[in-house]
Design a protein that fits this description.
Layout (H helix, E strand, L loop, with lengths): L1 E10 L2 H19 L2 E7 L4 H7 L7 H6 L3 E6 L8 H15 L4 E7 L14 E7 L3 E10 L7 E7 L2 H17 L3 E6 L7 H13 L6 E6 H10 L6 E4 L1 H14 L7 E5 L7 E5 L16 H13 L3 H16 L11 H11 L1
Parallel strand pairs: 1-2, 1-3, 3-12, 5-10, 8-9, 8-10
Antiparallel strand pairs: 4-5, 4-11, 6-7, 11-12
The protein binds 3-isopropylmalic acid and manganese (II) ion.
Length: 346
Amino acid sequence: MKSYRIALIPGDGIGRDMTAAAWSVLQKAAKAHGFAFEATEFPWSCAFYKETGAMMPADGIETLRSFDAILLGAVGWPAEVPDSVSLHGLLLPIRKSFVQYANIRPHRLLAGVEGPLKATAFDILCIRENTEGEYSGAGGRIHQGTADEVAVETSIFTRKGVERILRFAFEQARSRRGKLASVTKSNAQKYSMAFWDDVTRQLSAEYPDVEVTSYHIDAMAARMVMAPETLDVVVASNLFGDILTDLGAAIQGGLGFAASANINPERNAPSMFEPVHGSAPDIAHLGIANPIATVWSGAMMLDHLGEKDTANAVMTAIETVTASGIGTVPGKDRTDTITAALLAAL
Ligand code: IPM
Ligand code: MN
C-alpha cells in the first residue's frame, strides 16, 4: 500500500487539538482511498523551549527534510516565550530553509457559512511570498534602551524571489479564472515595490492569457471588503500577504476557516500545511476551536501529494458539515462535535 510519511508538529495552544482533529480526518480519508499516512510527531513548541532552551533541536531542519510533508498546528505562547523568539525558532526557519516560497491561502465562503459582508459569492486565492521581503530578518538595533536608540530592518527583494512568486501566481491565475491582482505600494516605496511592479509587467508578456492588474495595498484592502467578487488570484509580498490574508480570513467568516499551504513548488524539500490562525491562548483550553481551517489545510496537503480525489472527498465532507450548520458560528459547536461530524460525513 502506498504510504506517505508526514511530520506532525502540533505546536502550542489550540494547535494541539487542531492537528489531532485534522489527523483523525486525514487518516480516515486515506484509508478509504487505499493509501496510508504515517505520522511522526515532534513536540517542538514553546513548552519544548522551556525545557531545552530551543524551539527545535539544532538538527531539526535536517530531521524534517526526509518527510513527504509537514502538518503544523500553531506556534506561539507569548506569556512564556516572546513571539520574536518562538516564531524565528521554528515556523519561519522551516518556511525559509525548505524554500517554501509560495504561501497559498484560499478565501471563499464555505456552504452554510455567513461572512460579515453583503457579498456571498467570492473565491479568492491569495499567494503570499514566503521567504524574503519584509520578513528577511536583515537589520539590527544599536544603543538599545537609550535615547539614541536606532532600529533598522531592511526588506530584501531579489529578482529570483520576486520572479518565482509572480510566475507561480500567473500559473495559478491561468489554471483558474485568468485574473491576477499584483499588490504593492509602489507610490510610496519607490525601490522595492516599483521593482515588483516592473517584474509583474515584464512577466505579463509571457502570460497574454492572464489579465493582470497592479493595485496598491490600501486600495486592495478596500476592494477585498467592497468588491471581493471581482478578485481571482491575488499576489503580494510577505508582509502585505500576511495582512491581506487575515482580512481574507475575516471576510470568509473568521480564522476558523482560513487554510494555508507553504509550498516548495520545485519539490526539492517538503512543503508545510498549517491553518492561518495561531495558538489562540485565550480559548486554548476550552475545546471550542474550529478544526476546519486545519482540516482544509490537510486537504491542500492531499492535493499537493497528488491525492486529488481524497482532497476533494475531504472538502466535500467539510462542506457537508458546514451546510448542515455545524461549525459555522465561532464558539457554537465544540471541537469534538465538529470533528465527529467531519468523520461521519466522510
Ligand atoms: C501567519 C502568521 C505568521 C506570519 C506569524 C505567526 C509569524 O501570522 O502565518 O500568517 O506572519 O507569517
Ligand atoms: Mn498572519
